UniProtKB/TrEMBL annotation:
InterPro entries: 3-OH-isobutyrate_DH-rel_CS, 6-PGluconate_DH-like_C_sf, 6PGD_dom2, 6PGDH_NADP-bd, HIBADH, HIBADH-like_NADP-bd, HIBADH-related, NAD(P)-bd_dom_sf. SUPFAM superfamilies: 6-phosphogluconate dehydrogenase C-terminal domain-like (SSF48179), NAD(P)-binding Rossmann-fold domains (SSF51735). The active site is at K206. Pfam families: NAD_binding_11 (PF14833), NAD_binding_2 (PF03446). It comes from Pygocentrus nattereri (Red-bellied piranha). Coiled coil: none annotated. Pathway: Amino-acid degradation; L-valine degradation. Its EC number is 1.1.1.31. This is 3-hydroxyisobutyrate dehydrogenase. Belongs to the HIBADH-related family. 3-hydroxyisobutyrate dehydrogenase subfamily. One of its GO terms (biological process) is L-valine catabolic process. Residues 39-197 form the 6-phosphogluconate dehydrogenase NADP-binding domain. Keywords: Branched-chain amino acid catabolism, Mitochondrion, NAD, Oxidoreductase, Transit peptide. One of its GO terms (molecular function) is 3-hydroxyisobutyrate dehydrogenase activity.
Amino acid sequence: VPLTSAKPRCMSDCQNHDSSVQRTHFNLFCRTMASKTPVGFIGLGNMGTPMAKNLLKNGYPVIATDAFPESCKELQDSGAQILDSPAEVAEKADRIITMLPSSPNVIEVYTGSNGILKKIKKGTLLIDSSTIDPAVSKEMAVAAEKMGAVFMDAPVSGGVGAASLAKLTFLVGGVEEEFNAAQELLTCMGANVVYCGQVGSGQAAKICNIMLLAIGMIGTAETMNLGIRLGLDPKLLAKILNMSSGRCWSSDSYNPVPSVMEGVPSANNYQGGFSTTLMAKDLGLAQNTATNTRTPVLLGSLAHQVYRTMCARGYANKDFSSIFQFLREEEGQ
């Protein structure tokens, strides 16, 4: 091959290589810049605040709001921008996370007069980490799609402690092609991010988990109370349970008996954690879905009744592990 023809081909190869490298660097730069664009966060309660703070810790600017302005102070002090309404957040962010107490709250925040969908931009990714009725998640997904946005449900398991330590488990439902985009943000706040299927699947998984948690906590509290009445030391009994077949999360990680464990609500007069009110609400969701699907949930129904009774007896704002205290008071001790 003549030298004159080889030289241009070599130069062309080098130019193509340089162009390819430049494109790669440019694409990487664009992705990096996009990943650090502001993230909206709506709902700054016991769970939402530490979740949003973990986004800040990972370098994401956060634009937030809450129905109660006083709930915003801690996050504002950490560097977040606070706005007055969900609609204002939607104007400034194309990725928004919501963490709200109930289905009516979610409906209002998304579709209300100052809701997200009033000002939403096309292509916005909406991630709802509230625990709500799966049917409501599906309704919100349809409403978002009409506005050119994508809605995913991503309820959490793990409680306030896990939220603070970024060790939550996210149960995600929605369009599978959008899972990676959601995962980028959720991994800043959790240790596990699990794709469960179509919209509503995350809520379905969460409801099943919460029902088992409630049943397990009641069983643990009853067992510990019986053992104490039989003269067993509570720490010894907990140790025996946790090396035996009765072991469960409520016995080994969240024991309901005061003095058995440190760093759990039972060691702090049942303050903080996951309130009895929210447990009763979530069990109501489980009851409704069981009724709609004609699924027998005998212990789930009893657990719902127990936690509703506790709410009526002054335990509404205490952690759900206060079932142990409730049982002790019921027996007159």
